[in-house]
Write a structure and sequence with these properties.
The structure is a single chain. By secondary structure, the protein is an all-alpha fold. Helix 9 packs across helix 22. The radius of gyration is 26 Å and the shape is globular.
Length: about 700
């Protein structure tokens, strides 16, 4: 068997050749486009070539060894583990939705960058080296060893499944969105097609296959992210370094915002939205007066409109289909109707408001509005930071390094590889926004670019441009671009060759698949290792353990695809929710378990349950689609605590988790000397000697 140094050198050689081959592949497709290759075939080539590549790595990395399957044999060098962690981390949210969030939210979107990067500081300081010193396979493994007994391990498994499943649904949605747009197949088929690419990597080789696939995926996603933004930067400023062009363009964007805001036609459209806001708010007041009667009357009105359309214009299939959808999706009760009306009023209010400066922090007409925005900004940073430090699929990556030193170093490399994308995202948002404001706004409706219709055909909620004041000119308020499509549509918005669109799609697919791989493996491993092997059948053979893991992987993947096909929420919210759940479920128990010998089993059990419970409760009562599932009828506005958005629900769960663990631990007998010695050992992660208490 090769030494670690020889193994590292081989990896460098293989991935250098791979990178050169991928660049050559893109150049060949660019030549093909110039020679007449159609966009459809470019999309198909990127999709099947990249998925085929990942499948080949997965097949070549297949293994029947438990240590290889769960932790890649603990021989992944820090540099490559950092790259794999970067890919594992850079999910559909980072690649697809983060720059889109910056485009839509401006300054507020920086919370995602600050929270996600800051979280790795917590990983390096509080968790990664200590978990590597412990050295087994999963996060519930550590909880079971530290606190003792199957109860805390079971809660750890539940929390891992809850946050990881929420996260993986977002990734599968991203896969469906990409494949639907760039191959022409429908969204649901795209979800299942993309999922096959995930399974072929993780099913055969577990963490070993996932690790080497993620390194390959990182190379694709970072190249795909950087090329269009560098191209845009050169196109707009002549400067190939977008981070430097950023300052110049944000000033030009500010000037454009002022110019557009002074246009009387823009004011005309915003008044239309103001009228819509007033109408929705009036209906809400009428609803409050007699909820059931108003709900019944509104439903009857929708049904009457459908009947009238069918009678008067039976040939207008589009209008009838829209009316049928309105009847089918009509809110089930008065509370749900009020939530819908509030959503309409809030949406119209946002469009009616004066143009918000991209660089303006916490805008608002009143001090209260500004305070609410500031509060939510800080709450989101907190949840994303703590959630980053508690995500099981990220923490598992530090089990794969050869030593504690390598675990520490790999956190540094992870930050570097993540920094490359995160440092570029704000520039991408500003460059795209400047392009839209300077070319699309003010253009004739007759000259609307084709990318709008192409994206609307994938999902009408992604993009909409309607001539509300019938002047034939596009005003800013008449444009609706969803954050989930901004990055993927960037090459088309900028008029770049279609091969760049295919490249960006391949990058987004790599980001979504790499994270989905890690998440599915986390869930399947928690069930097979922590539940089946540790609790149900401790005498199971290696072959049986791996068979159970693979079967569970298939079941979880199918469940994730089924939920994703329903589009329960936008990608960025689902990812943010996963972070809040992970933060509340794991961070207090892990950090106190490492740094406080007095933390007890009962304290950990009650603290984890309290943290996850209050976080999930807050989401269930403040997120519309969850409210419907759980039958919550309290008006949405009354359900929020201190006006904190549901994406930051961990703000309540994390402090509660810490408080409950500390209080209950002080009220119960101290842990045994053996447990305290265990903590002492883990607390000092010497550079030699790892605590691998279970043989592979």
């Amino acid at each position: 068997m090769a030494t670690q140094a020889e193994f590292t050198q081989s990896l460098k050689k293989y991935y250098t050749l791979y990178t050169g081959g991928f660049i050559a592949f893109v150049i060949l497709l660019a030549i093909g486009e110039q020679m007449g290759m159609t966009p459809k075939w470019i999309g198909y080539t990127f999709l099947f070539a990249t998925i085929g590549l990942y499948a080949m790595i997965g097949i070549m990395s297949r293994t029947a060894d438990v240590s290889e399957y769960y932790v890649a044999g603990r021989r992944v060098p820090a540099f490559f583990n950092g790259m794999a962690t970067g890919a594992d981390w850079m999910s559909a949210a980072s690649f697809i939705a983060m720059a889109g969030g910056l485009y839509v939210g401006g300054y507020d979107g920086l919370a995602f960058i600050m929270g996600w990067t800051g979280g790795y500081v917590l990983v390096a300081l509080f968790l990664a080296p200590y978990l590597r010193k412990f050295g087994q396979f999963t996060i519930p493994d550590f909880l079971g060893a530290r606190y003792g007994g199957h109860t805390v391990r079971s809660i750890g498994v539940f929390a891992a499944i809850l946050c990881s499943f929420t996260y993986v649904v977002a990734q599968v949605m991203g896969v469906g969105l990409i494949t639907a747009r760039f191959t022409g197949i429908d969204f649901v088929t795209g979800v299942w097609l993309g999922l096959s690419g995930v399974l072929v990597c993780s099913f055969l080789g577990g963490m070993r296959a996932v690790t080497w696939t993620q390194v390959a995926q990182y190379i694709i996603l970072i190249v795909a992210y950087l090329i269009p933004v560098v191209w845009l930067s050169v196109q707009q400023t002549g400067n190939p370094i977008p981070q430097i062009a950023y300052g110049q363009q944000i000033q030009k964007l500010t000037d454009l915002e002022k110019k557009i805001g002074a246009d009387p036609k823009e004011a005309e459209v915003r008044q239309i939205f103001k009228d819509k806001q007033t109408a929705a708010e009036t209906k809400m007041k009428e609803l409050d007066g007699s909820p059931d009667a108003f709900h019944a009357a509104a439903k009857a009105e929708a049904e009457g409109k459908l009947a009238a359309l069918k009678a008067a214009t039976p040939q207008d299939e589009k209008a009838i289909a829209a009316a049928e959808k309105a009847v089918a999706e009509f809110p089930a009760n008065a509370a749900a109707l009020k939530d819908k009306l509030k959503k309409e009023a809030d949406g119209a209010k946002a469009k009616a408001a004066p143009i918000r400066a991209h660089a303006e922090a916490f805008p608002g007409k009143t001090e209260h509005e500004q305070d609410v925005k500031r509060r939510n900004f800080l709450a989101l940073i907190f949840c994303l930071m703590v959630g980053t430090a508690a995500l099981p699929h990220i923490l598992m990556r530090y089990y794969t390094t050869p030593s504690v030193r390598e675990a520490r170093n790999s956190v540094g490399w992870s930050l570097f590889f993540i920094f490359l994308l995160y440092f570029t995202a704000p520039a991408l948002a500003v460059l795209v926004k400047f392009d839209v404001y300077s070319h699309l706004v003010g253009s004739n409706f007759a000259d609307i670019p084709g990318w709008i219709a192409r994206w609307a055909s994938v999902d009408a909620t992604l993009v909409s441009v309607k001539d509300l004041n019938a002047d034939g000119i596009v005003q800013l308020a008449e444009i609706s671009l969803h954050q989930d499509m901004i990055v993927l549509a960037t090459p088309e918005i900028a008029g770049l060759p279609y091969v760049i669109s295919g490249l960006v799609a391949a990058g987004g697919l790599a980001a979504a698949l790499s994270t989905a791989d890690g998440l599915l493996l986390t869930i399947a491993n928690a069930l097979s290792h922590d539940v089946y092997y540790k609790m149900v059948n401790p005498n199971a053979s290696t072959k049986t353990r791996l068979t159970v893991a693979k079967m569970l992987l298939l079941v979880v993947a199918a469940a994730a695809a089924s939920v994703a096909a329903q589009k329960p929420a936008d990608i960025l919210f689902l990812v943010g929710a996963a972070f809040s759940l992970a933060a509340a479920g794991f961070f207090p128990a892990l950090t106190l378990g490492i740094f406080w010998k007095r933390a007890t089993r009962l304290g950990a059990i009650t603290g984890m349950l309290a943290g996850v419970g209050v976080t999930f409760f807050y989401m269930a009562t403040t997120q519309p689609w969850l409210r419907g599932i759980f039958g919550v009828t309290t008006p949405l506005a009354d359900a929020k605590w201190w006006e904190i958005e549901p994406i930051s629900a961990g703000l309540f769960g994390v402090p509660l988790g810490f408080a409950v663990i500390i209080i209950v631990s002080l009220l119960t007998p101290a842990p045994s000397k053996e447990t305290q010695d265990f903590v002492e050992h883990v607390r000092y992660p010497s550079l030699k000697g790892d605590m691998n208490t279970e043989a592979a």
